[in-house]
Amino acid sequence: MEEIDVAVRGGLLRVVAWPGSGPLVIAAHGITANALSWAAVARELAGRVRLIAPDLRGRARSASLPGPYGMAAHAADLIAVADHFGATKVGLAGHSMGGFVVTETAARYPDRVASVLLIDGGVPLPVPPGVDVDTALLATIGPAMRRLSMTFPTADDYLAFFRANPALGNSWTPDISEYVLRDYTGTGSSCNIEAIRADARDMLTAPAPCEFPLLGAPRGLQDEPTGMYPAELLAAAGAEMVPDVNHYTILLGAGAAHVAGRIAAL
User: Fold this and answer.
1) Could you tell me if residue 60 is left (phi over 0), alpha (psi between -120 and 50 degrees) or otherwise beta?
2) Distance CA 248, CA 259 (A)
3) Mean pLDDT taken over the chain
4) 189-205 per-position pLDDT tens digit
5) Are 13 and 74 in contact (CB under 8 A)?
6) CB 199 within 8 A of CB 97
7) Where is the AB hydrolase-1 domain (predicted)?
8) What are phi and psi of 141, to 5 degrees?
9) How far apart are CA 30 and CA 37, in angstroms?
10) DSSP H helical segments within 31-132, as ranges?
11) pTM for the full model?
């Protein structure tokens, strides 16, 4: 694993690169996540592709990048990553909000995208008219959203907050610890709240068309038996369900091998 800075609008975007002899695949993470959410998938890929995962603008080691934020900004950043690595066309994979990032990239830069895989994301969620972005975010990713305004005196306190979520705590691994600690600033989350809001506004109100292979998680953000997406919505989108995973462990745990296999197949 190698950390690389890529020149983008306003500064440097940090990416994590895993070695591989196959084609370049750029992987986009969720709305309050970071590049290390892809570490278990990278291990399972075992070099079949060269996986590149950025800390998206406004998060982790790309937290200081300025606005404007939103899906168009992320799409331009992903193309800058492709340019940095000399790739004319790339495969894209996106988890959760990252699914919206990669569909936007495919819509804006179709000649640069070879394939797209969505992982429990990228499908528009129904939002009642008049609901503001913060309310919609709390309804969708409540604990993750509340975390952004909380303070944590130590890294152990931050880890404990995540372990208290049964979706993660029941499947805890060293990968999850490293993923959590990448977000910790010494007092709380690295996420820029203005970036989160701008991204959510685009994701909830103006998503790009979703016409790509989709992997779905049967369980949700608190490991509840109902997934983040209603089963009927996933069925309508033609999703392939990954067995015995939740919204997080489809990527960070038991689903990593399944996701890796689908990335390699694309």
Assistant:
1) left
2) 12
3) 93
4) 999 999 998 998 888 88
5) no
6) yes
7) 23-131
8) -130, 50
9) 9
10) 39-45, 71-84, 97-108
11) 0.94
Which tokens go with 32? 């309050």
- Paired tokens of 76: 């331009």
Euclidean distance between CA atoms 8 and 46, whole angstroms: 29
Q: If you ran DSSP here, which 8-state letter would residue 208 be given?
A: P
Count other Cβ atoms within 10 Å, centred on residue 20. Answer: 18
Q: How many CA atoms lie within 13 A of 265 on its CB side?
A: 8
Burial of 171 (C-beta count, 10 Å sphere; 0-12/13-18/19+): middle
Angle 73-15-75 from CA coordinates, rounded to 5°: 20
Q: What is the dihedral of CA 128, 132, 136, 139, to 10 degrees?
A: -100
Sequence-separated (6 or more) residues with CB below 8 Å from residue 161? 147, 150, 152
C-alpha pair distances (Å), 203 with each of 96, 125, 153, 197, 230: 10, 9, 32, 10, 17
For 208-256, what is each residue's pLDDT tens digit? 878 899 999 999 999 999 998 888 999 999 999 999 999 999 999 999 9
Tokens at 167, concatenated = 């979706």
Mean pLDDT on 58-63: 98
How many Å apart are CA 252 and CA 156, to the nearest integer?
20
What is the Cα–Cα distance from 21 to 47, expressed in whole angstroms? 6
The SS3 call for residue 109 is coil
| pLDDT tens per residue, range 156-213 | 999 999 999 999 999 999 999 999 999 999 999 999 999 998 998 888 887 787 889 9
